[in-house]
């Protein structure tokens, strides 16, 4: 049984890189709850999770906090989220009693716009990357360091982008382990979980949004969109940088919206 195999995979020390392929073979067969339980038992201290309070955010927040109720939940607030996102976040923070940790860029939106302009209006990938580094990546890296993170739960799914199709349930990103409990879930799996546990989608789903980030770089899907991520970043890129390789050359290779 998968559960028994996972119990036998409990490590006295953290798993090494060369052990990850075999471990992933087992984790691919486990359900999300088993993956989270195994991770909590194996890693102990240093668990964190992240949320953007996006369309399906309630799934991971509910899944993980049922098992690790006090886990620090990192929310990188860019200062440009839609009003509906802020209200949705407050609802989930209260309803799920989240141990929320809000991180923001030390450069305020007003200061950024005055000194470097509205980067999202410059309509080139380099400007979007600069924006994402300033408003998302730097605050997240600071959060992980300040919270002493050793393992990071994230709600990425392989259906979302071509880059995410290449991911495994457990990986290393820099000095951290990253665990993706719902990597193999479909949109139907997400919907069923939300229905079963009476959890809400982000309210902008009702307005045609399949994914939502900042108000200036998210829009509803249209009949012309072949993929939900075409509705982000003016279709020029699919990832904000939080879940990409950490070197600039690796990141640039993943910018294209054709990924």
Supply the key terms.
10 helices, Rossmann fold, 259 residues, disordered C terminus, six-stranded mixed beta sheet, alpha/beta, single chain
C-alpha end-to-end distance: 36 Å
Amount of helix: 25-40%
Order of helices and strands: HHHEHEHEHHEHEEHH
Q: In order across it, which strands form the biggest sheet?
A: 3-2-1-4-6-5
Estimated structural class: alpha/beta
The CATH architecture name reads 3-Layer(aba) Sandwich
CATH superfamily: HUPs
What is the arithmetic mean of pLDDT?
83
User: Helix count, per DSSP?
Assistant: 10
| CATH top level label | Alpha Beta
Here the CATH topology equals Rossmann fold
Unreliable residue runs: 237-241, 246-259
Broad shape: globular
Structural commentary:
The chain has one domain: Rossmann fold. 38% of the residues lie in helices and 10% in strands. With 259 residues, the protein is an alpha/beta fold. The protein has helices spanning 2-8, 20-27, 32-43, 57-67, 83-95, 109-115, 125-146, 162-165, 187-196, 248-252, and strands spanning 47-51, 72-76, 99-103, 151-153, 170-173, 176-179. The chain has a 6-stranded mixed beta sheet.
